[in-house]
Specification:
mainly alpha; globular; binds fe (ii) ion
Length: about 180
């Protein structure tokens, strides 16, 4: 049996899952790069970072399975998210515990808002996509809550990291959700 070439995402639901898949690749890259750095900068954080990394790989697999089932190709931003996430993870990992917490808090707070918006749409449009998003929300909430606890207030540097990372995450989502010019 010949396998058809994956097609571009056509519907809003497919675009949402395609963007989530790329975003999870970015999250995997962030935590993986941080796990290399925290071994010598803040070893007490290593277990938490590795646990988050395991979650993000599972999330990526959930969205990958959805896209594969529909033969939808991954987002063009997939590898950009991977490279950007690695750079962000390396820089914040070198900076230590507060920078790691600020990054996680910033990414996850944008992601959670975005997922809530998706759920409101998907519940009436695509049950399978809705269920896929439901599977990851508890993990993302716990990443967010743990980071907020570790952050314990912000200073000049952490609030700068939060602003930059929030903006970058929002840009990645907007870029991925744009309507294709042609199919
Ligand atoms: Fe995730
Ligand atoms: Fe997460």
């Amino acid at each position: 049996m010949t396998k058809h070439k994956p097609r571009p995402a056509k519907t809003t639901n497919e675009r949402m899952i395609k963007v989530n898949h790329a975003g999870e690749n970015g999250a995997v890259a962030i935590y993986r790069a941080q796990s290399w750095m925290v071994r010598w900068r803040a070893p007490e954080l290593l277990l938490g970072v590795l646990e988050n990394l395991t979650h993000e790989k599972q999330h990526r697999d959930i969205f990958k399975a959805y896209l594969a089932k529909r033969n939808v190709r991954r987002c063009v931003s997939y590898h950009i998210c991977g490279v950007g996430g690695t750079v962000l993870g390396l820089i914040t990992g070198i900076c230590g515990g507060k920078a790691i917490a600020a990054t996680t808090y910033a990414v996850e707070s944008v992601v959670l808002q975005h997922l809530e918006t998706q759920l409101a749409y998907l519940q009436n449009h695509d049950r399978e996509a809705y269920d896929a998003v439901c599977l990851i929300i508890a993990d993302e909430q716990s990443h967010h809550d743990q980071a907020l606890l570790a952050l314990k207030g912000t200073n000049f540097w952490t609030s700068g990291i939060i602003k930059i990372v929030r903006l970058s995450t929002e840009l990645v989502i907007r870029f991925g959700m744009r309507q294709p010019l042609k199919h």
